[in-house]
Amino acid sequence: MNKDCIKGNCPVATTLGMIGGKYKPLIVWHLLDGVLRFGELSKLVPQATPKMLTQQLRELEKDNLVIRTVYPVVPPKVEYSLSDLGKEIEPTLAAMYHFGSDYMQREGIQVSCSMKPPQSKGELF
Question: Could you report the per-residue pLDDT of 8-65, keeping only the tens digit for each?
Fold first, then answer.
């Protein structure tokens, strides 16, 4: 995370510094379901180019939200999972999902993305 984000000791800025990014919330959301490989994440977040997906995963790993596990096989096998810290962001993402869903409903916009409602992820809303 860019340490400049927390100069003012702002919790919201700190959180945005960690999960703010074009695809970071989507990546974390999908990893709430469990371990995924790069190709699986690419299919779940198709709008992210491989370069951008790699960059976002590296930043999430650097901020200790995502764990990258490399298996010494040929070809290399890499898996991504959430750390305990990464799992703590679930209520925040669920609130974002509910806000966006409610807004879209008010505007008459149909939800059509790869995200499932938070109830399927054990959310208590």
Answer: 688 888 888 899 989 999 999 999 999 999 999 999 999 999 999 999 999 999 999 9
In sequence order, which residues have a C-beta less than 8 Å from that of residue 38 and are 6 or more positions away? Answer: 53, 54, 57, 78, 80
User: Are the C-beta atoms of residues 64 and 85 closer than 8 Å to each other?
Assistant: yes
How far is it, in rounded angstroms, from Cα 86 to Cα 32?
9
What's the CA gap between 88 and 108, in Å, rounded? 32
Cα–Cα dist 1/32, whole Å: 21
Mean pLDDT for 87-111 is 92
Domain that holds residue 62: 3-121
Give how many domains the chain has, as a whole number.
1
Instruction: Tell me the residue ranges of DSSP E strands in 1-125.
Output: 36-37, 66-71, 77-82
CA distance 81 to 2: 22
